[in-house]
Specification:
Length: 172
């Protein structure tokens, strides 16, 4: 299965106490790697969170905001504007960057609408149900080999936004 920490970030977001978020930051990797909740919160005395993912487009930013507002009522919402550039994901099938973000969102009408808005019709099922999309991975020897020699990453504990992590290569 594809991996992207946006899925873990969504899990972390859903566990936040209701009404505990002051600042919500949305966008693509520029937002993710620019805004650090640890620094923002230390300086401003706030509780901030970044929901950004690689190559996020405007459509996904919109549905991420709708999803977030179902669970939190932030005082400030920051949308990083480079999400306005680039083509829609509506034309491309099978891009992990879209899947990883959608996979993190709870199944709901909002998620269905996000898929319809940004995926081609032939990719609706793969976008909504990762277990169907990935069920044949074990048959692909290249994918299996890649999974076996993947570097060991020291787990990140705080998924509110970007934080540097150390990694090391396995023996192979």
């Amino acid at each position: 299965e594809e991996y992207d920490d946006i899925q873990k970030r969504w899990d972390y977001f859903y566990e936040l106490p209701p009404g505990s978020l002051d600042i919500l930051i949305l966008g693509n990797s520029h937002a993710y790697s620019t805004y650090s909740p640890n620094i923002i919160d230390a300086i401003c005395g706030t509780n901030s969170f970044v929901i950004a993912s690689n190559s996020q487009k405007l459509e996904q930013t919109y549905y991420n905001l709708k999803e977030a507002l179902k669970y939190q009522q932030p005082k400030i919402v920051v949308i990083q504007l480079s999400v306005l550039s680039g083509d829609s994901w509506k034309k491309e099938v099978g891009d992990y960057r879209v899947y990883s973000n959608l996979d993190g969102i709870k199944f709901s009408l909002n998620k269905i609408n996000a898929v319809i808005a940004q995926r081609p019709r032939e990719d609706y099922i793969n976008s909504l149900f990762p277990f169907l999309r990935n069920h044949d991975n074990w048959k692909d020897s290249k994918l299996l080999a890649t999974n076996l020699i993947r570097s060991e990453v020291v787990e990140q504990v705080d998924f509110r936004g970007f934080s540097p992590s150390a990694s090391k290569m396995g023996k192979k």
